[in-house]
Amino acid sequence: MPDNKPPGVTLSIDIANQFLTLATQSGDIIARYPVSTGLNGPGQADGSGCTPVGKHYIRARIGAGQPLNTVYRGRRPTGEIYSQSLASANPGRDWILTRILWLCGCEWGRNRGPGVDTFRRFIYIHGTPDSEPMGVARSHGCIRMRNTDIVELFDRVPAGTPVSIY
């Protein structure tokens, strides 16, 4: 593990207050970031547009070394860099930018398994356009962050990091 990644970190995402906390295993807060979770509130069901709750972990880290505002489709860089002109040419597109932390549920029948599977629902912590508000639930179920914040977080958390969403 590189030296800049603290050992034994955890993430918690507070849906009601719209923030993500990075902490040590013993509970000491390292950083806190504003986020935007699902517009439809908390929930597990496929197709619900809700942010799943419960115990998760980071299953995959995508985008290391990519430029700020890199655009992703299907977890792959498109070769585009987000800009207002690109946004104007693609109204209604759900922008996944900069980095992706792909989550996997740990609780069978709650956030893992048929009809409720966080991983198969493609629930990520990811960057979003800086014009999008933080602290307001507006996503399609993912946890959106400012691009500079997701880069900082990405560099601090390894795959396997526990994530609690409540």
TrEMBL record:
Keyword flag rRNA-binding: no
Keyword Glycosyltransferase on entry: yes
Pathway the protein takes part in: Cell wall biogenesis; peptidoglycan biosynthesis
Family matches, as Pfam families: YkuD
CDD domains in alphabetical order: YkuD_like (cd16913)
Family listed: Belongs to the YkuD family.
Record's protein name: L,D-transpeptidase-like protein
